[in-house]
Design a protein that fits this description.
globular; three-stranded antiparallel β-sheet; alpha+beta; 16 strands
Length: 354
């Protein structure tokens, strides 16, 4: 039975058929994550390495017997400076760049040391590089070092690593034994193709921030204010972005309707589009659904971390339709919305009226 849990209501891939996010499948070393009608499926051969957790922008993926946030608070409480794979954590690959930045800022030590295993070392190398770049831009005097954990014996096989992780997670769950009936039902469900439930659909509309972003908020509040801010190239940050919207935008409203965190939003009349950079998780879903390709990424200003604000990206001339009284983007001519105009044209065609 897989201990990987995917909350479909939070999965970016589920939000739209045009979603391009395949982070979890791309990073999986065993290639056991696939998609059926955009719904992620995890094969029973999953080794539970946890690398998919660290790369998911919305924290839709989790381990059933391990809480990342609880681990982080426990680590900070102990005032330790080193985190090693399989030492109170299944694998360091579970931690994202946001987690690492927050851990470093909140730690009492100037340097946070990570000891990665062979499986996650490459991923952590990229994460640590990005985290250190941002920590330097924030001028907080903190840094992260990465070293590969030495094995006592020769290189372990994938099966042995998997067994170690399973044993570790099993020890975590000894506090509450699972009844055989429940375990059986979970086993059956884990082999069935998952589909969207009503609960999943409801979660899609919640627009909640992932816990790692809330943790970052907490960490940023503890930073000293700086006088000089820095512009960071958009390609240097994987978990947050700054955007602009070009005039080719047709105000279809899809971008802010599908945004999983509400970073993009509008007013009741749909007359403008606002953007909250600190709520953006850079899932790129808004870019995927934008037909005129009007949403563009810009360099990120570190000022947003210290003085967050809501940006007005674009404003529209909105009027009430003379037919249905709904608001629509007016572009001149008759004051009638596109839907009513289409219905009018279809009626004329039906009755042979030119």
């Amino acid at each position: 039975m897989s201990i990987i849990n995917i909350e479909l209501g939070n999965c970016v891939k589920v939000f739209s058929k045009n979603a391009s996010c395949t982070n979890c499948a791309d990073i999986c070393p065993e290639k056991v994550i696939t998609y059926t009608d955009n719904v992620p499926q995890v094969d029973s051969s999953c080794t539970e390495c946890g690398l998919c957790l660290g790369t998911c922008p919305t924290e839709a993926i989790s381990l059933k017997s391990f809480d990342t946030l609880e681990f982080i608070f426990s680590f900070l409480e102990k005032e330790e400076h080193t985190i090693a794979c399989k030492n109170e954590i299944p694998c360091l690959g579970i931690l994202s760049v946001e987690h690492l930045v927050s851990l470093s800022i909140l730690s009492v030590h100037e340097t946070l040391t990570l000891q990665s295993c062979e499986l996650c070392h490459q991923q952590l190398t990229t994460y640590v590089s990005e985290a250190n770049y941002l920590l330097d831009a924030l001028q907080c005097g903190k840094s992260i070092t990465l070293e590969q954990k030495l094995e006592e014996t020769k290189r372990e096989s994938v099966e042995e690593q998997s067994e170690d992780r399973r044993a570790f997670l099993q020890r975590l769950s000894l506090k509450g034994a699972i009844k055989s009936k429940v375990e059986f039902e979970q086993e059956v469900q884990s082999h069935e193709t998952r589909t969207l439930s009503q609960e999943d659909s409801a979660n899609i509309r919640k627009k909640e921030l992932p816990n790692k972003r809330k943790l970052l908020y907490m960490a940023l509040k503890r930073l000293h204010k700086i006088d000089e801010f820095k512009l960071i190239e958009e390609s240097y940050l994987s978990f947050i972005s700054q955007k602009r919207i070009e005039q080719s935008c047709d105000n279809c409203s899809i971008c802010y309707r599908v945004c999983p965190t509400g970073a993009l939003n509008s007013d009741k009349r749909g007359s403008k589009i606002h953007f909250d950079a600190l709520s953006c998780v850079k899932c790129r879903l808004c870019h995927d659904v934008c037909e005129p390709d009007a949403i563009k990424l810009e360099a990120f200003n570190t000022k947003s971390f210290f003085k967050p604000k809501i940006d007005e990206l674009i404003k529209f001339n909105v009027m009430r339709c003379n037919e249905c009284a709904n608001f629509f983007t007016y572009q001149g001519g008759e004051v009638i919305c596109p839907r009513c105009k289409l219905e009018e044209e279809e009626a004329k065609e039906l009755w042979g009226i030119q």
